[in-house]
Amino acid sequence: MEILQYALRKLLGGLPLIVGVTLVSFALMVYFGPDMTYLLLGKNPTPEQILEVRQQLGYDQPFLQRYLGFLREIVTLDFGVASTGEPVTALLAKTIPVSLILILPGFILGHVVGLLMALAAAYWRGRWLDKLIMAVAVTGMSISFLIVIIGFQIVLSSSDGLDLFPVRGWNSTSLGSYLTYVTVPTLATMFVALGYETRFYRSIIVEEMSRDHVRTARAFGLPESRIFFRNILKNCLIPIITRIMFSIPQVAIGGALLIESYFGIPGVGKATYEAIITGDQPVLKAVVSLTAILFVLVVVLTDILYRAVDPRVTIE
Amino acid sequence: MALAALVAACGPVEQPSGARPATKVFRYAMDQAPTTLDPVQGANIYANFVIVNAYDTLYSYKYLARPYELKPNLAADFPTIAPDGLVYTFRLKKGVRFIDDPAFPAGRGREVVAEDLIYSIKRQFDPRNQPQGAWLWQGRIAGLEEWKAAGSDYDQPVSGLRALDSHTLEIRLLRPYPQLVATLAQGFAAVVPREAVDKYGKGLGVRPVGSGPFKLVSYDTARVVMERNPNFRQEPVDLAYEGYDPATQAFSGVEAIQGRSPPFVDRLEFNFINEPSASWTSFTKGDEIQYTVLPIEQVERVLASKRPVTLRPEYADKYHIYAGLEAGFIFTAFNMDFPDFGYNPDPERERRNKALRCAIIKGYDWQGRNESWYNGLGQVFPGVIVPASPEFDPDLSLASVSRDVAGARQLLRDNGWTPRNLPKLVYGTTAGTTERLNFEQFRAWMGDIGFPREKVVQKTYANFGDISRAWKRNQLPLVAKGWGLDYPDAENTLQLFYGPNGSPGSNDANWENPEFDRLYDEAAVMQPSDERTRLYRRMNQLVIDDCVAITGLSRTRIYLWHKDVIAVPDREILGGFWLKYADVVPAKPAGLTSRAAKGT
Asked: How much is the pLDDT for A316?
């Protein structure tokens, strides 16, 4: 009950954040965002036709009126119709699940494997294994994601490479076909994510290992495994949770633009990119507002998780 | 477990792409996705490719004839035209049906009638549709403007559009319009049933309901999948009528479609790939996309020679190749509303401004641009009548596209231009590396003729919509753009310099030349003839003489397609119409050579 009250309080506290984020992003869209007017006009338009299109798009309305309309859309979750003619909610309902199942394996594996590698590197700090892991991590971080994608496509999918997987496409009608299409994107995502995750996790583990209570535990002769899991890893959970949780909105809404674009996957990242290019404001508004809402939810959930892993954290 | 559940929940998002199909599948690739499939907004080539396969147009173009030739499509024949050129009478083919769809009673598609065409043209004049094709008939067809002004009520008639009977349409014009038939071969003129618009509204943009050779299966940001329309009319191909030239087209194996009724493939996929590397890897894999435009970065690796364009043996064994000149061009217009180099209240300054523009044109290196960006495969030509136009003059002097740095410097000196008093040149582009390099190249050329570096500046815009806004609002002094022909008629590029078409119209130069405008008005009502060609060429010369634009170059696109595909691709005037003629040779047992594979 206490937690529920806390969650509700935090959610209410998040409302100003949502209003702030949506206001700033809406102002940016209105004043600096793409203008669809001139994409929708035919050749040799008259000033009257330009005015007609601006009216159709609502560009002639006062800012406040447009912003209030935007807030109404957020509350009703009805963001209107995309430039294709498809309702935005239908578009998101179609694309977000695709992005989720595309990104999740790489996201989970990236964090889990990154954590394991960081543990090994930290445990054998300064030894050859640590240096090897860090070398791999720095390599992953240094190479452009674009190059990684193209490299994996050529090595694993192309006729010049191993030719094991499709270059492009998407099919999630069965687990087998899903695995066929998701493997290369996952490996590419993992390769890049591993570098960042491993370095981050290693640094917090190393810091924790050098704390007094760990030294004391060792002095008491406690087993290394127990020290590692109870005194080190558990104390690292706060930054680990923070990192994972705050990646979620990006995974859920942002999708993976490059991955989706290069692998021909109809996820929300590609839809967002197309919306940016074409100035499709209904889609952009939906993505921006949903991301803001998800961030607020993540903040609340993260605070609750903090409490679960560290009793010293109060929810007051 | 959770992931597996989510996978199952996602259901049939897409159909398999890479597996060897049991049915005939043609996997086509385009470098962008269409923004909508509703003909009322089908303004770009990507939308048009899909639209003309989902819908019927009254006319289309002959599959193989070059130069392009119109032919009846949904129309039974060419229209009868009244002697005054103001009344066109079209007869529609009988028995053509829309696809079965829940929009129709009992879900069964009804016959296409003349009223459907009237309804479809009316849609272009209904502001609620945000139409993009009204310019084709605006001020041409009688009564449309009045109909729009009265509130775009579809139940009200338009005086210039009349169904004489269920299969006969009469169009009355305000003045002769020789391009009318060509406008009815555009995606904008695709025939849409009113029932579908009533049922789906804006949703028609993702759910086409037409009478074309294919019907939609799925549409997302990565792909459009269509399947053969089983009820499409039976019209056996007559290659001779379609303009087949054995000398240049036999390699494609296209003779195999003689006497058969299209469409020939069961499934047609449009894959949207805007990354050249992904497109190339997918194309060369063998079982994914079967067609691609050759990425510029692969040219040296793939081509054995550029003139003529031939493939290296290892590629020639697997792919067909065809190099086609675009039906359009790239050019840079001087916006004459900028007094620094355009019109000026001071006649002396205006005279010097003309010399300045001519010097800039002399300093521009078209051959250099062709080599840098188009592998030297483009065609540089003078003026604005492009090589793909029937009225193109191959004997026109190349002086206006030949670089002459010394001549440019001399011209500037003779007219009192010095590095100090030269005006600033603002070169507008969209943001991007290619655009930046283009600008730097331009700046270097202008530096060669004496422009100080700081006087040639780039102004970037986030996307095409934003730079279009700057053009239409008359905000950019130099307008660098490309133009694709809407129909094979030089009128389509000459109108870019017609005075009344000034901003926000397509005359971005805001050039007003009374003689040009008079000739344009005179030619605009003439049917194709030697006399009209003479007028067109005279107008072209006026553009050149007044140094109003740096022009031009038509790019060459190189198409590659797998040898199991029987086709002669095109993405210019013919557009998506050729896809219904594409066929795929079924895989044969090992040891046998496919017929198509015998081509070059």
From this structure: 53
Q: Cβ A36–B4 below 8 Å, yes or no?
A: no
Distance from CA of A53 to the nearest CA of B (A): 6
Domain count, chain A: 2
Mind listing the pLDDT tens digit for each residue in B390-437?
A: 999 999 999 999 999 999 999 999 999 999 999 999 999 998 888 999
Residues 6+ apart with CB under 8 A from A298: A245, A246, A248, A249
Whether residues A121 and A70 fall in one domain: no
Q: How confident is the model at residue B596 (pLDDT cuts 50, 70, 90)?
A: very low
Q: Mean pLDDT throughout B500-526? A: 95
> What secondary structure, in 3-state letters, does B485-549 show?
CCCCCCHHHHHHHCHHHECCCCECCCCCCHHHHHHHHHHHCCCCCHHHHHHHHHHHHHHHHCCCE
B368 CB-contact burial (10 Å; exposed 0-12 / middle 13-18 / buried 19+): middle
Question: For a pLDDT cut of 90, what percent of chain B falls above it?
Answer: 84
Does the distance separating the beta carbons of B7 and A178 come in below 8 Å? yes
Q: State how far the Cα of B546 lies from the Cα of B569, in Å rounded to an integer.
A: 38
Q: Looking at residue B598, what is its pLDDT?
A: 34
Based on the fold, state whether residues A270 and A137 are members of the same structural domain. yes
In a domain, residue A137? The reply is yes
Range of the domain at A57: 2-76
Given this model, what pLDDT does residue A253 score?
67
Residue A311 domain flag: no
- ∠ CA B378-B383-B385, rounded to 5°: 80
Chain A residues with CB under 8 Å of B136 CB are 42
pLDDT of B252-293, one tens digit each?
999 999 999 999 999 999 999 988 999 999 999 999 999 999
The sign of the torsion formed by the CA atoms of B186, B192, B198, B204 equals: negative
The Cα of A222 is separated from the nearest Cα of chain B by a number of Å equal to: 37
Looking at the structure, do residues A133 and A72 belong to the same domain, yes or no? no
What is the mean pLDDT of the segment spanning B192-207?
96
Q: How many CB contacts within 8 angstroms connect chain A with chain B?
A: 199
Which residues of chain B lie closer than 8 angstroms to A37, CB-CB?
Answer: 465, 469
Distance CA A121, CA A137 (A): 11
Element (H, E) at B172: strand B168-172
Q: Does the complex come out with an ipTM higher than 0.90?
A: no
B505 contacts on A by Cβ (under 8 Å): 43-45
| Contacting A residues, span 139-158, partner chain B, CB-CB under 8 Å | 150, 153-154, 157-158
Say which residue the tokens 């960006």 belong to. Answer: B373
**B325-346, pLDDT tens digit by residue?**
999 999 999 999 999 999 999 9
Low-confidence ranges of chain A (pLDDT < 70): 1, 252-255, 314-316
A53 vs B contacts (CB less than 8 Å) = 130
Ordered domains of chain B (ranges, CATH): 1-33+221-324+559-600 (3.40.190.10), 56-203 (3.90.76.10), 328-554 (3.10.105.10)
Q: Residue A70: which H helix or E strand, with range?
A: helix A63-76
Nearest-by-Cβ selection for B468 from A39, A85, A177: A39
Q: Of A143, A140, A139, A121, which Cα lies nearest the Cα of A130?
A: A121
Chain B interface includes A173 (CB < 8 A)? yes
Q: Do A40 and B204 touch (CB under 8 A)?
A: no
| pLDDT on residue A13 | 81
User: Has residue B20 got a pLDDT over 70?
Assistant: no
Q: Could B465 and A178 be called an inter-chain contact, meaning their C-beta atoms sit closer than 8 Å?
A: no
Cβ contact, residue pair B127, A52, below 8 Å: yes
CATH code of the domain containing A247: 1.10.3720.10
CB-facing half-sphere around the CA of A233: CA atoms within 13 A:
13
Smallest Cα–Cα separation from B549: which of B515, B520, B506?
B506
Same domain for A66 and A102?
no
Q: Same domain for A6 and A38? A: yes
